[in-house]
Amino acid sequence: MHTLSTCNLQNLSLDQPGQTKLAISNPCDYAALVMETNSESFSVQIIPAPLPRGSQFPDLARSVDYGRHPAYQTLVTQAGLFLRLRALGSFVKTFTGLLAKRITRYEMIPYDLRNSGGLAMARQGLKNALRLNSPTAPFSGDAPVLASLRDHGIAVVQIDEQAHDRLEAIAAAHFDMLTKRRKERENETRQFEDSRSTVSRTSEPELFDRIESLLHAAGIMDAASAYLGRAVQLADVNPQINDASDSFWRDIFPDMPETPLSPTAYYHRDASGGDLKAIFYISDVGPKNGPFTYVLGSHQADVRRIDDLICEANDHGLSATDRATRSLFAALPKALRRKGSFGNDLEPGSDAARLIAERSWSIEGPAGSIVLFDTKGIHRGGMVEHGERRVITCVLG
User: Fold this and answer.
1) CB of 301 within 8 A of CB of 274?
2) What was the pLDDT predicted at 136?
3) Of 142, 151, 167, 267, whose CB has the highest number of CB atoms within 10 Å?
4) How many CA atoms lie within 13 A of 55 on its CB side?
5) Residue partners of 164: CB distance under 8 A and separation at least 6
6) What residue spans define the domains of the chain?
7) CA distance 62 to 160
8) Checking DSSP bridges between strand 2-3 and strand 360-363, what pairing results, if any?
């Protein structure tokens, strides 16, 4: 396991009203860029990954043999015809809906459009399906954010205290609302989604625009566009609070309480169409505060497209580890027993578990850290053992 360290400083200074220019502090930094911002100046640090670029990464989801796994073996052998047909029907239904999402590139549709539905959403989905998106703007191929993203699947930057404090002040009312909502749920019944919410450009324009401005000014939007080969936009903004009372990552096999928590618990690939996410640390995040952790190089895993789709389909309903869901998953044909959320099922001491431990980067950092990552890489976060973690997760679609 590796932790965050700091790197060289780059200054963002006011070039002319309404614009900022990113100054070059040494030859390996960004080329000069002009960005729209809110008539202010602040500094940005680029944080280097702790390991060199790795070689080809295997598909670790295929390493789990559910027919021999202690939590699944009996369920696989006991599955009757009715349960097998039910499981297959559930998979086909989810897989069909998933294909529609992938064709329309659902993650690229901004939240406001998805929420409103109707013709506007349909038009955007058709535009996405026909690949009529704006081409990416020219961008320096050796810029450190882009280079780190390509080499490792993740890039980490830090904005200065003044820039962060302004963001935190704008987001305060929303976090107060989220805190109140969490308190209304009993800890034992609180679900993962109870700890997060959504900010839209329509409902909270000041907060949404502030985040978008920072992403542009820090070079993240341009790096994301160059990485994906198209002009990206801020599709989702999700404030989130986690603390030690959350149990979503602890209760892995609730019917098998004697089973120890796996060191790879909660590691997963996102069940999405290959978008990027940027996580703003609103609070300081230490080793016990649920730091975001990424398996370096795992974004380049040798995953066949059909296997990725199978994993995504199962992660939309058949990846939970309670006994009822495990029974349904175990009843699937062997070729369909794949998950993107496979970390809970890796056995300690396995080759896959060792590789994850060797390549994991735990991003422990101060408030103002921004983590940009490829969601198809293996990662986890929010597993708070002490105190509280506040973040804002952004989807760049």
Assistant:
1) no
2) 55
3) 267
4) 2
5) 282, 367, 368
6) 2-396
7) 42
8) parallel
Distance of CA 261 to the CA centre of its chain: 22
Q: Give the mean model confidence (pLDDT) for residues 285-312.
A: 95
| H/E run at residue 22 | strand 19-22
Give the chain's radius of gyration (CA, Å): 21
- Give how far Cα 321 sits from Cα of 52, 328, 375, Å: 35, 10, 22
Beta-bridge partner residues of 234: 396
If phi > 0 it is left, if psi is from -120 to 50 it is alpha, else beta; for residue 118 that is: left
Collect all residues with Cβ–Cβ distance below 8 Å to 66 and sequence separation of at least 6: 72, 73, 76, 329, 330, 334, 337, 345
The pLDDT of residue 191 is 74
Band the pLDDT of 367: cuts 50, 70, 90. Answer: very high
Residue 26: its pLDDT value, please? 33
DSSP codes of every residue in 124-192 = HHHHHHTT-PPPPPP--TT-HHHHHHHHHSEEEEEE-HHHHHHHHHHHHHHHHHHHHHHHTS-TTT--G
pLDDT tens for residues 37-61?
Answer: 445 666 788 888 988 887 789 999 9
Q: Which residues contact 99 (CB under 8 A, 6 or more apart)?
A: 309
Measured in Å, how far apart are the chain's first and last C-alpha atoms? 30
Contact 128, 235 (CB under 8 A): no
Rounded distance between C-alpha atoms, residue 104 and residue 297, angstroms: 28
- Distance (Å, rounded) from C-alpha 148 to C-alpha 49? 7
Which of 208, 163, 202, 217 lies closest to 33, judged by CA?
217
Q: Residue 134: its pLDDT value, please?
A: 62
Q: Tell me the pLDDT tens digit for each residue of 72-105.
A: 999 999 999 999 999 999 999 999 999 998 998 8
Residue 188 has pLDDT above 70, yes or no: no
> How large is the average pLDDT for residues 178-202?
83
Q: Highest-confidence range of 45-59, 238-252, 279-293, by mean pLDDT?
A: 279-293
**Residues contacting residue 269 through CB under 8 Å, at least 6 positions apart:** 61, 298, 311, 340, 341, 375, 376, 377, 378, 379
169 and 52 Cβ atoms separated by less than 8 Å = no
Cα–Cα nearest to 2, from 64, 50, 60, 36: 50
